[in-house]
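Bit of a strange request maybe. I'm writing a small parser for structure token strings and I need a real example to test against, not something I typed by hand. Could someone generate the tokens for this chain?
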Amino acid sequence: MISIGAVSSASGAAGYYANDNYYTEGEGADHSQWHWRGPEALGLTGSVATAAFEAVLEGRLPNGANITTPSGQEHRPGLDMAFSAPKSVSLMALVGGDERLLVAFEASVKATLGWVERNLIEARRFDEKSGTQQPVKTGNMVAGLFTHDLSRNRDPQLHIHAVIANATQRPDGAWRALRNDPLYAQQATIAAVHNADLRAWIEALGYRTTPAHNPAYGQFEITGISRDHIMAFSTRREEIAAALEASGRGGTAAERELAALSTRAAKDPGISREEDRAAWAERAASIGFDPAPLREAAMAQMARGGTIWDRGLRASRVSPPEGRPLSPPWAWPRARRIHWCQRGRAGSRRRTMPQRRRSPRASGISARMRRASAALI
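Reply from user aminoacidic:
Good idea to test on real output. This should exercise your parser:
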């Protein structure tokens, strides 16, 4: 699920996103990161420092540029595009301990944001002929990613806040404010892109998937986790449903967002992560939810090469990287030469695709996936 909302305060956002929970306490310094082309152009790398984040949200960029607004108007800090994993994925990752799913979820969010950046990020430019402001695609955005793992009720809920600053560089080199219209207009498309990419990752890791109770935009769950188990860890969903029923609303996406905001309570900072995990384990035991067999079956399925991607690659005669478990082709840890057969009148001919350079991001994702897999063996 994806929600998009306006960031109301630069200073408030900098404190909240940077200091809220992270799924691995020992990696607290790595819970945030700058994303893609905008930060690269501004020299912003690594984890998101609070001071730099606040300055960017205020429109003060590291290169000295300032995002100006028309006279009398207040600068808008940016947007919070929140990506929530399916509850069954959160349960297997956070209660079941399959850290591969944490890496896969992060990779799917980054892939979706890459699609957003290429296709939907725009600024405005004054057109002298028409005398009006016209949209212009920029292909870059400045975003900070923050990975969290709790719902407001401290249920396990893996989600990533992509805080998109109100700044983008136009093709003429000028830094200007974002034109938000395409992001709101294409919210359903963004959700569909993310669900499709994440589902491919989950199936490549050996799990089977099934359409969700509400399968809008391709939403899905991991097969083997019942609706009762999902609802037992979805107390926020029950609160939102109760609020909708009390107000007599029909439950559209916009109405659900309003109900979520109206029922949102502050998180209790006095509860430790160990207490959370103990409470999750106790609740899982009380409802008969044992994630270990499902996790082990997925690991075995992946080791046997029996995932949907294995079957597809074998059918297309494409070879995986030598010595590596099969995974979605875009997730392969190393770019390589791919051979395939093209049949013609003269018989089979063997051709070779040019080798692509592996990006640093792909290397990082692959390394994290290998570490997560090794920890489960």
